[in-house]
Amino acid sequence: IRAGAFDALDSHRARVLASVGIAIEAAEQAERNAMQVSLFDIFDESGDDAYGHGPQYVEAPRWSERQQLNEEKLALGFYFSGHPFRAVQAEIAHFVRRPLAALEARKESQLLAGLVVAVRSKITARGKMAFIQLDDGSTSLEVSVFSELLESERAKIREDEVLVVEGRIQRDDFAGEGRVKVVAERLLTLAEARGRFARQLRLSLNGQAAGNNSRHAVQRLRSLLAPYTPGECPVRLSYLNAEASCELVFGDASRVRLEDSLLQALREWLSSDNVRVDYA
């Protein structure tokens, strides 16, 4: 179910998974009633059960694309229907210019980004170091993190999360022609990278979203932003109703950390078209 084996019957995987218990109960009840109904006969081709009733599901929220991919990896050991990095690929392209497959060795530091798919550690003469496997859908690449950086940035290395790396990219002739290796100099979460490179968070609020009580809308906006302050990204609000429009630039004390959870909450309220992170 987690990987989509039952999608032909119902593509709402969260609901199907939540309903496994009642499906088993229905099969056991049918057997107790001496109807000799097999597990595959519980629902006929019309979708009705052995008693003529349609399937009774346990309602559950539909999985987001990211959660669905994580469930696939849990079941199969790999992502099946897509790649989590694609959801942020266009945004990251504003500050990471090359995909991992196109990186070339250079003297100056470069930025790269990908999903952390594996982490291993090793004790060396210089202390403990980590090797992070990043994957952006174009290829995977190993990043070396030496002990001093690892000690200070360990919490940012989380499997199945996006990591932005500033580091030196060198030729790795031992691994093969055209291969490179990366030595990390700085690690950034996606929220930190947004704060470093984004110019502002732009929100658009119209009279319809505010409803009849503009004060309530302001309070709701404040409650959404408050857990993510203080931060580095300025906030600009465009307000429009039938009578007037205005632009508000929030003060420095209202700068926010651009966490995924904040952006998701704002988009659920205002819609995706009204929540934008500006990079230029």
Question: Could you name the key traits of this structure?
Answer:
280 residues; alpha+beta; OB fold (Dihydrolipoamide Acetyltransferase, E2P); 3 domains; five-stranded mixed β-barrel; four-stranded mixed beta sheet; 9 helices; 9 strands; 26% strand
In DSSP terms (H or I, runs of 4 or more residues), the helix count works out at 9
The CATH architecture of the largest domain can be named as: Beta Barrel
Tell me about the biggest sheet? 5 strands, mixed, barrel
Shape estimate: flat
Question: How many separate domains make up the residues?
Answer: 3
Strand content: 25-35%
For the CA atoms, what is the radius of gyration?
25 Å
**Termini gap:** 43 Å
Count every beta strand, where a strand is a DSSP E run of 2 or more residues: 9
Can you walk through the features of this model?
- This protein is α+β, with helices and mostly antiparallel strands and 280 residues long.
- The protein has 3 domains: 13-76, no CATH class; 87-195, Beta Barrel (OB fold (Dihydrolipoamide Acetyltransferase, E2P)), CATH 2.40.50; 198-278, no CATH class.
- The protein has helices spanning 13-18, 20-32, 65-76, 86-92, 147-153, 190-197, 207-210, 214-225, 260-270, and strands spanning 110-124, 127-135, 140-145, 162-171, 180-189, 200-206, 235-240, 245-249, 275-278.
- A 5-stranded mixed barrel has the order 1-2-3-5-4. A 4-stranded mixed β-sheet has the order 8-7-6-9.
